[in-house]
Amino acid sequence: MTDGAVSGDNPVLGHVPVSNQPSEEIPVGVEFTEPPDEGIDPNSTGVTDEGTEEVQGYERIEAAVAADEDLITPPSVQLPDIGEASFGPPPPMAEAVHGPDDRIQITTTNVYPWRVHSSLLITAADGSRWIGTGWFIGPHTAITAGHCVYIKNSGVPGRDGWVRRIDVMPGRNAASLPYGSVASSNFRSVTGWTSWGDQNYDYGAIILPSDLGSSTGWFGFSVLTDADLLASTLNVVGYPGDKPPGTLWYHWNRTASVNTRKVYYDIDTVGGQSGSSVYRIAGGQRYGVAVHAYGGATTNSGTRVISAVANNMVAWKV
């Protein structure tokens, strides 16, 4: 997919799905709430009545499957956030910790729900390497930000467009890869991002050649009303670039505000967490309601899972 001359804010054209596999047809799904799955080892952490994760006192569970660990050695130095490839170094696009940094490091990364999240090592078309975060929605599919799979307006010759490769490392904990790593060069996004670079359409997917998500499990996703979102406690887990390389961190807070395309929250995030799931817990189950993508002075934000987004996620779920 190349940049086109489409302009304007057309909510229908903006969510037209695109792929870096030119011969592949991408069907459009139907609207419904997708359930989560805890994977082949269903032991998981508890949740609180407030809709957050319980993060203390759990035993470490050995991973059921180790997949392709020899494909990659996780980098021991911190690489730049993939957001910088499209938006430049911060400021003004810095993701933010607001007030005291009370993020919690997760070390039991091979336990559900933490293992649903993946550290991404992204190789751009020009060979430069970047970091991001993704989360499984099916055996072969991880959701992430659009700017993790397609770089816009970098100003660097040969860098823009579909990235060359993404190494997906579920449940990574620094140098430990409890589920190994899988490389993919099969990506999805929508025209609102790939053609227009519109932040309201900043979401995408990574299609894996193996069914690694069957081992890790995955999150569901939901289309919620404004009232339901505003009444929700939101959770964000990811791989921030200001912490030791490849370590997983968690934070939560109430929804701050919403509009028709985005969700805003005062949840601490830093570059590297682009693509993280913004999820709520309902009935003890985890459902993504936005894809984290941006920072701000008082709130950070993600691309809201509205009907058009959910329909694409259903179609991309394999």
What is the secondary structure topology, with strand pairs?
Layout: H1 11-14, E1 17-19, H2 83-87, E2 104-106, E3 117-123, E4 129-136, E5 141-144, H3 146-149, E6 150-151, E7 161-162, E8 165-170, E9 182-184, E10 187-190, H4 191-194, E11 204-207, H5 213-216, E12 220-221, H6 226-230, E13 233-238, E14 248-258, E15 262-265, E16 277-282, E17 285-294, E18 300-304, H7 307-316
> Which CATH C-level class is it?
Mainly Beta
The separation of the N and C termini measures 22 Å
Beta content? 25-35%
CATH topology, by name, is Thrombin, subunit H
The second-level CATH architecture is: Beta Barrel
For the sheet with most strands, the description reads:
8 strands, antiparallel
- What is the overall shape? globular
**Approximately how much helix is present in the residues?**
10-25%
Q: What is the element string, with H for helices and E for strands?
A: HEHEEEEHEEEEEHEHEHEEEEEEH
- Total number of strands: 18
Helix and strand content put the structural class at alpha+beta
Residue-averaged pLDDT: 87
Query: Given the structure, what is the number of helices?
Result: 7
Q: Compute the number of structural domains.
A: 1
Question: Rg, please?
Answer: 18 Å
Low-confidence stretches: 1-8, 57-70
- State the CATH superfamily name: Trypsin-like serine proteases
Give an overview of the whole structure.
The protein is of the alpha+beta class. It has one domain: Thrombin, subunit H (Beta Barrel), CATH 2.40.10. The protein is 11% helix and 28% strand. The protein has seven helices and 18 strands. The protein has helices spanning 11-14, 83-87, 146-149, 191-194, 213-216, 226-230, 307-316, and strands spanning 17-19, 104-106, 117-123, 129-136, 141-144, 150-151, 161-162, 165-170, 182-184, 187-190, 204-207, 220-221, 233-238, 248-258, 262-265, 277-282, 285-294, 300-304. The strands form three sheets. It has an eight-stranded antiparallel beta sheet with strand order 1-10-11-5-4-3-8-9. A six-stranded antiparallel β-barrel has the order 13-14-15-18-17-16. It is globular and about 50 Å long.
